[in-house]
Design goal:
Layout: H1 3-42, H2 46-73, H3 82-113, H4 116-150
Helix pairs in contact: 1-4, 2-3
């Protein structure tokens, strides 16, 4: 192995860590924006906020874990056998059911601390935030693509 290859091999993990740190910061920023958006949309009383946020954070953490499991379940099916594909599909359905069960569980929990109107506003606020986020991310990708074309 020549010295350039060795240096590159040693630096790759550092670049990957820097990239992961950058993604973590971006996710953190999005999470702060989401909290602010939901808080504004639901216009919490201090008591509601105190009851709501711990429950919502538990819900978010559990939902993130399921999404991670979904990511792990995604594979290029072109190189899999029929039985492996069947396993992937079955696992996908199981994860979907777990997500639905999670939503049902936390829907009940949300109703313990919020009025039905505020629970409905919560679901709408989440939808609107995600829709707006997707629009912004697509706009960033488009701007990046245009930058690449100018180079």
């Amino acid at each position: 192995m020549n010295s350039k290859t060795l240096i590159i091999a040693m630096l790759c993990p550092l670049f990957m860590l820097a990239q992961n740190h950058k993604m973590d910061k971006k996710r953190e920023k999005i999470e702060v924006q989401k909290i602010a958006f939901i808080t504004k949309q639901l216009d919490f009383t201090p008591e509601e906020a105190q009851k709501f946020w711990p429950v919502y954070n538990q819900f978010s953490d559990a939902r993130k874990q399921l999404h991670e499991q979904h990511k792990e379940n995604r594979k290029d099916i072109d190189n899999l056998s029929d039985s492996e594909i069947e396993k992937l599909i079955d696992n996908h359905i199981i994860l979907d059911q777990k997500e639905l069960d999670l939503k049902k569980k936390y829907h009940t929990e949300f109703k313990k601390g919020l009025s039905n109107k505020k629970v409905a506003k919560l679901y709408h606020a989440e939808h609107m935030f995600n829709k707006d986020l997707l629009k912004r991310l697509n706009g960033e990708k488009e701007r990046e693509r245009k930058k690449q074309n100018y180079r």
